[in-house]
Amino acid sequence: MSETRSYPRRVKTDAGEIEFRMMARSDEAAVLAFAKALPTHDLLFLPRNISEPKVLSAWINEIERGAIVSLLALRGKTVVGSGTLVRDPHSWSPHVGEIRMVVSQDVRGQGVGRALSQETFAIALGAGLEKLSVQMTVDQQAAIALFESLGFKAEALLRDQVRDVDGKTHDIVVLGHNVAQVRAQMEAYGLPAAVQH
Ligand SMILES: CC(C)(COP(=O)(O)OP(=O)(O)OC[C@H]1O[C@@H](n2cnc3c(N)ncnc32)[C@H](O)[C@@H]1OP(=O)(O)O)[C@@H](O)C(=O)NCCC(=O)NCCS
Asked: What letter does residue 133 receive in the DSSP assignment?
């Protein structure tokens, strides 16, 4: 997946300095520790439970295959967030990317999620995608507010779409963003460098 941004990159947040860099096989143990510390409810938006080693290993296989790009947010050596861009160039939606993002509970509300979403968004723009989507359980107020502030709009509600470990079902909301339209607007404003890919 092509992208124009270079990593590692450091960003100052209210949680201190955060390093963003691409995730690799060598991060497996640190990412597993990060995922295991997350409340399982916060993982319901993902197709599989990433706190299971087998799932995490499959995720890294996908990164190595080039099918997905995952950015890690690190504070020191500790993983405090991950942002992933998923796309399938061989599907009927080669122009669409899905963003999947999660931040450690102990650093939430301090700007890490916003910085991570901006990085992931920039990668998606650089990859030339035309549409982006995100999905989350309807009670993830912070996630919905964050993506709406980036211009995403609700497109679908999937009732009882996921079932948690206690057997309770939850609704999923899907938000979409027409990136191609934004790119065209930026070009109209004379900002081609910001949208080059
Ligand atoms: C969504 C998530 C990644 C945000 O991470 P974060 O580091 O807390 O985010 P930030 O501190 O950068 O806050 C970003 C925005 O979220 C909103 N927000 C943050 N905390 C909030 C809260 N408690 N209630 C409502 N909105 C909130 C605000 O709009 C904030 O914008 P601001 O920069 O104007 O303050 C995090 O809550 C998370 O991991 N949630 C669980 C996983 C999930 O559902 N992911 C969504 C799937 S893509």
From this structure: E
